TrEMBL record:
InterPro entries: SecD, SecD/SecF_arch_bac, SecD/SecF_CS, SecD_1st, SecD_SecF_C, SecD_SecF_C_bact, SecDF_P1_head. Residues 342-517 form the Protein export membrane protein SecD/SecF C-terminal domain. Residues 235-340 form the SecDF P1 head subdomain domain. The gene is secD. Pfam families: Sec_GG (PF07549), SecD_1st (PF21760), SecD_SecF_C (PF02355), SecDF_P1_head (PF22599). SUPFAM superfamilies: Multidrug efflux transporter AcrB transmembrane domain. It comes from Streptomyces galbus. Part of the Sec protein translocase complex. Interacts with the SecYEG preprotein conducting channel. SecDF uses the proton motive force (PMF) to complete protein translocation after the ATP-dependent function of SecA. It is found in: Cell membrane. HAMAP family: SecD_B (MF_01463_B). This is Protein translocase subunit SecD. Belongs to the SecD/SecF family. SecD subfamily. The chain crosses the membrane at residues 360-380, 387-407, 413-438, 466-485, 491-510.
Length: 562
């Protein structure tokens, strides 16, 4: 009664349904150790925590993020949410760096013949103390004003780009170190290789975007790709000046005053604020595009705002023709940090609500059929005793339902299709306990005992057998729960839960009810429909206790004495 009252008081009167019953999306991600981080429990738990916060940051309720084995993470997103956006967020590593832009130009059909031309559509820098992005997609004229040559390799500007890379490398090196001939040769080789990568990079191709900047360390210059209004740009980027881990908080806001649309505002911590002020102060002294810094997220340049003056105060704004969803997505990932590991999407399973409803209906139908068959067997074989068994089954089912309803909000338990299968299997396990008890009672009646002593003598033997049987079932469920993950755990959990409830019901309901029934004439007198008829069971004659005479035993009387 207490559990039932708690269920109604909490307002959770139905079990929480899993993805396969309620509908939704299930994503399986595999961890990859390609960022210098080991795949261990600590990193996997950190990744689960960050993914949970990211999904919750999207307003997704009751999403499940859990590890699967040592390398996989399962993300279950219920119906009624933007599964595509959540799918893009949970597996995104979100390694963020602020890198100075050394050169940039559009690629593909919109390629500019002059790679050194500024892609900014704004004629003058922004006077506000914030980083604002130029509208690259609206500036084809700035590129067409350059040389008419259609050469794809930077010719005249290649030298200036090479000098920019060299300056970036010198700035990153220790000022006290005197470069040797071998180090100078190595630097020249690296610069030549980087210029060649930039010249050959075509960001309009998906394969090129996927590999751009692979293997580059934060302290090294690199190349990257970024999109603005459907046009892909390639970038030559300097060493990272600010790390994304130094962003304390980010949020999406709509600028109504300047009609700039959706923006992402960032608050840096103390260390990040100083770095950001230093790099923006240096960039503000350069000409376009060297006055821009690229915001590089997982190798992609999501924005490249230009800087007109040093940005102090530890705050900045990113604007770049964002939609609301894009701004909120970027702010969400910046707020909750980078994943310690990168992940590869293994599988995505989408279950519609209609399909989930059909599966739930089929599972409940299978459970009802199984329960009906067990009841038919009990009635046919045990007759009157079947009433006690059916009452015990109903009590067990009610307890299971109430506990599952309470475990949903308490520990996040979700009833999925394997869990329903576990409940169906539990019907047989529970009925088996009743059968063991009833058969022990029948054995005692066959020995010639009446019902009341038969119940009391049968209980210790039946109790021992029931405990051993349920322990074996619970042990199997526990092992299955430990060594498996995901939906199979639902089966193991339900099987273990119902096994424990079977012991509770048999000890605290079935046995007391049987003791009370033994006092009723219908059962005590062995009615032929009670299931305890001694004649039908082939009982021996009633056991009688022989009495000894009260006085001393006298021998036979001698007739002669008489």
């Amino acid at each position: 009664m207490g559990l039932t009252g708690g269920m109604f008081a909490s307002g959770h009167t139905t079990p929480r349904l899993g993805i396969d019953l309620a509908g939704g999306t299930s994503i399986t991600l595999e961890a990859k150790a390609d960022q210098g981080s080991a795949i261990n429990k600590a990193n996997m738990d950190t990744a689960v925590d960050i993914m949970n916060r990211r999904v919750n940051g999207l307003g997704v309720s009751e999403a499940e993020v859990q590890t699967q084995g040592s390398r996989n993470i399962i993300v279950n997103i219920p119906k009624g949410t933007n599964s595509e956006e959540a799918r893009a967020q949970v597996g995104t590593t979100a390694k963020l760096y602020f890198r100075p832009v050394l050169a940039t130009e559009p690629t593909g059909a919109a390629a500019n013949p002059s790679p050194s031309a500024s892609p900014s559509g704004s004629g003058s820098p922004s006077p506000s103390a914030s980083a604002t992005s130029g509208d690259k997609a609206s500036s084809p004229s700035s590129g067409s004003s350059g040389s008419p040559s259609a050469s794809s390799t930077p010719s005249a500007s290649a030298t200036s780009q090479g000098r920019a890379v060299t300056d970036a490398l010198k700035a990153d090196a220790s000022p006290s170190a005197s470069p040797s001939a071998s180090s100078s040769a190595g630097a020249s080789t690296s610069q030549a290789k980087l210029q060649a990568q930039y010249a050959a990079l075509d960001c309009s191709k998906k394969s090129a975007r996927a590999t751009a900047g692979d293997g580059a360390k934060p302290s090294d210059p690199t190349v990257g790709c970024g999109e603005n209004k459907g046009v892909w740009y390639k970038y030559l980027l300097g060493p990272a000046a600010v790390d994304g881990t130094e962003v304390k908080k980010a949020r999406a806001v709509y600028d109504t005053q300047n009609a700039a649309g959706w923006q992402v505002t960032m608050d840096f911590n103390g260390k990040g604020a100083k770095k950001f002020a230093d790099i923006t102060g240096k960039l503000a002294q350069n000409q376009s595009p060297q006055n821009e810094f690229g915001i590089v997220l997982d190798g992609e340049v999501v924005s490249s705002p230009y800087v007109s003056q040093a940005i102090t105060g530890g705050q900045a704004q990113i604007s770049g023709s964002f939609s609301q969803d894009e701004a909120q997505s970027l702010a969400n990932m910046l707020s909750y940090g980078a994943l310690p590991l990168s992940f590869k999407e293994q599988s995505v399973t989408t279950v519609t609500a209609a399909l989930g409803g059909e599966q739930l209906h089929a599972g409940l139908l299978a459970g009802a059929i199984g329960l009906a068959l067990v009841i038919i067997y009990l009635v046919a074989y045990y007759r009157g005793l079947s009433l006690i068994a059916i009452a015990s089954l109903l009590v067990s089912a009610a307890l299971t339902y109430v506990i599952m309803s309470l475990l949903g909000p308490t520990i996040g338990f979700a009833l999925n299709l394997p869990a329903v299968c576990g409940a169906i299997v539990a019907i047989g396990i529970t009925a088996d306990s009743f059968i063991v008890f009833f058969e022990r009672i029948r054995d005692e009646i066959r020995e010639g005992r009446s019902l009341r002593p038969a119940v009391e003598r049968a209980w210790p033997r039946a109790r021992r057998t029931i405990l051993v049987s349920d322990f074996v079932s619970f042990l199997a469920a526990a092992v299955l729960f430990i060594v498996t993950v995901g939906k199979v755990q639902g089966f193991a959990f339900t099987l273990g839960l119902t096994t424990v409830l079977d012991v509770v019901v048999v000890f605290f309901f079935t046995k007391p009810l049987m003791t009370l029934a033994a006092r009723r004439p219908f059962f005590a007198n062995g009615h032929k429909w009670s299931g305890l008829d001694p004649k039908s069971l082939g009982a021996k004659p009633p056991l009688r206790r022989t009495r000894r005479p009260a006085g001393p035993v006298s021998g036979p009387v001698d007739p002669k004495e008489a």
